[in-house]
Amino acid sequence: MLIFTDLKCGFAGIGLETAKDLARRGARVLMACRDPQRGQKALEAVRAEATGGASVELLSLDLSSLQSVRACAAKVLALEPRLHILINNAGAVNVAHAPTKDGLHDTLQVNFLGPFLLTVLLVELLQRSAPARVVFVSSSYHRFARLTPDLLDYPRARELHAVQVYCLSKLAVVIVANELSRRLKGTGVTVNSIHPGAVNTAIFRHFPPWISLFFNAFLRIFMIVTYFVIDRACVTACVMAFPIV
Ligand SMILES: NC(=O)c1ccc[n+]([C@@H]2O[C@H](COP(=O)([O-])OP(=O)(O)OC[C@H]3O[C@@H](n4cnc5c(N)ncnc54)[C@H](OP(=O)(O)O)[C@@H]3O)[C@@H](O)[C@H]2O)c1
């Protein structure tokens, strides 16, 4: 299994909760993180929850680098005889609009192109391991996007608001997941995209502090009103992944 997750000061992300949940079920969990130190903390947190022979390992993956994605996929292919569940969880809303080393918009590459490349590189392994499941963590924000060619054009994408690029990247995820699902029909590999719910995580940390505080206050209130807690934030992804766990 492959999960993207990480551990941040004061916040727990959805990926971390997903990894804990799968480790509690005795799964072999590969967590792919970009920051080795935070990844190590996440690894310890997930290992502490593991039961029933679960094994939890850490892989290095920076989704804003196509080279890193290829290296991570190569490692999985070299080390893992089977892959039953691929959960593409990582996501970002980068306000800096910085281009990646590959010359693409960073939010677009992290949310959509990186996970898509990784999935394509692992699809044969998933097929050989069938029944298998791919879960793309998208967002209901995809509804606010209209797909335009600007998305792949870095200088043009830079003119868009960070939230607009986020919405576009999440719409691209939904479209690609649907198409992949159609192409893999009959192979035993199921592909879904999900909205995890509104969860008080550090997803808005790249915004100016007052905007970030405002969004997090909103998410906190939403979670109080709906009795939604962080460790339930992984439910949608796990429900999509479970049937074969
Ligand atoms: N929270 C919500 O209300 C909500 C709603 C709808 C959808 N979602 C989606 O849910 C998913 C998880 O988000 P979250 O709320 O748990 O936010 P989060 O706590 O910020 O988690 C996002 C994760 O993505 C990782 N990431 C960012 N850039 C990366 C890169 N270049 N390479 C590898 N990993 C990278 C982050 O790692 P670092 O710590 O290293 O940055 C972090 O662990 C995202 O896809 C998000 O769009 C969240």
How would you describe the overall organization of this protein?
Keywords: Membrane, Oxidoreductase, Transmembrane, Transmembrane helix. It comes from Gryllus longicercus. The chain is of the alpha/beta class and 245 residues long. The protein has one domain: Rossmann fold. The protein is built from 8 helices and 8 strands. The strands form 2 sheets. The protein has a 6-stranded parallel beta sheet with strand order 5-4-1-6-7-8, sandwiched between helices. A two-stranded antiparallel sheet has the order 2-3. A hairpin with a 2-residue loop joins β2 (7-8) and β3. α1 (14-24) packs parallel to α2 (36-47), α3 packs parallel to α4 and α4 runs parallel beside α6. The radius of gyration is 17 Å and the shape is globular. Mean pLDDT is 86; it is low at 6-11. Bound molecules: NADP nicotinamide-adenine-dinucleotide phosphate.
